[in-house]
Design brief:
This protein has 232 residues and is of the alpha/beta class. The protein has one domain (11-231): P-loop containing nucleotide triphosphate hydrolases (Rossmann fold, 3-Layer(aba) Sandwich). The chain contains eight helices and seven strands, in the order E-E-E-H-E-H-H-E-H-H-H-E-H-E-H. Helix 7 links the parallel strand 6 and strand 7.
Length: 232
């Protein structure tokens, strides 16, 4: 396909498949989004095109820059001195998760009428996936602690009403930026997909074959439109 999909549409996800991609994009069978607004979270492994898609969505949808949360992990690492050598630690992933939640809360406190309430490059789920996919001893305990955090539990109702856009790894885009962890991107997405299902968070999934940024934006726009129509 490689970004040449004609008449792109949102296809239902079979929940038992744990998000397996059968076309360029998949979507849950229902669209539990708010009538007044929707938050968009773009997620996936490193070097899958998240920031590029977020920038393009912000421009195409006219999203206020104050409502666009750019990846917080790098800021946290700069401010705290964490490096990818600390990826397996609870302290680093907790710091990233709480920073993400704080950024989301700041946006949610802004006056809002309708439209896109928030666009975020990653979510508070991502550091939990890093904890869960760690090869270091104690990974399951770190995952349990992060999942049980009160602030995370409080944001889950919003996440369940939001549009999560899960990007598949694109092989030729995989690079070492010297900063983030070199996770196995396919394993990362496998765990992320399962976690989204377990938490009841709906998502759409854009496959590796859809690389063209214009097509990616159009796919998301179509799903937003489909959600709005369904809720009328």
């Amino acid at each position: 396909m490689d970004g040449t999909t004609s008449n792109p549409s949102c296809i239902a996800v079979d929940e038992e498949s744990h998000g397996e991609v059968n076309d360029s994009i998949t979507q849950p069978k229902t669209a539990p989004w708010s009538r007044n607004g929707i938050a968009i979270f773009v997620i996936g492994p490193s070097s899958s095109g998240k920031s590029t898609l977020c920038d393009a969505l912000a421009a195409a949808l006219g999203i206020d820059s104050a409502r666009y949360i750019k990846e917080v992990a790098r800021s946290v690492m700069r401010q705290t001195g964490f490096t990818r050598a600390h990826t397996d630690t609870y302290e680093m992933q907790y710091a990233i998760m709480t920073a993400q939640l704080a950024a989301e809360e700041q946006v949610l406190q802004m006056p809002f009428k309708e439209g896109i309430v928030m666009l975020s490059d990653r979510s508070a789920i991502d550091p939990i996936v890093y904890a869960a996919t760690s090869q270091a001893p104690g990974a399951s305990e770190r995952e349990r602690l992060l999942l049980g955090d009160a602030a995370l539990r409080a944001i889950l109702p919003l996440y369940r009403r939001s549009l999560f856009v899960l990007l598949e790894p694109v092989t030729e885009w995989l690079t070492d930026d010297g900063v983030r962890s070199l996770e196995d991107p396919w394993k990362y997405n496998e765990v992320l997909t399962t976690m989204l299902h377990n938490l009841g968070i709906p998502f759409i999934q854009i496959g590796e074959e859809t690389k063209d940024i214009g097509t990616r934006v159009e796919l998301v726009r179509n799903c937003l439109q489909a959600a709005s129509t369904q809720l009328l």
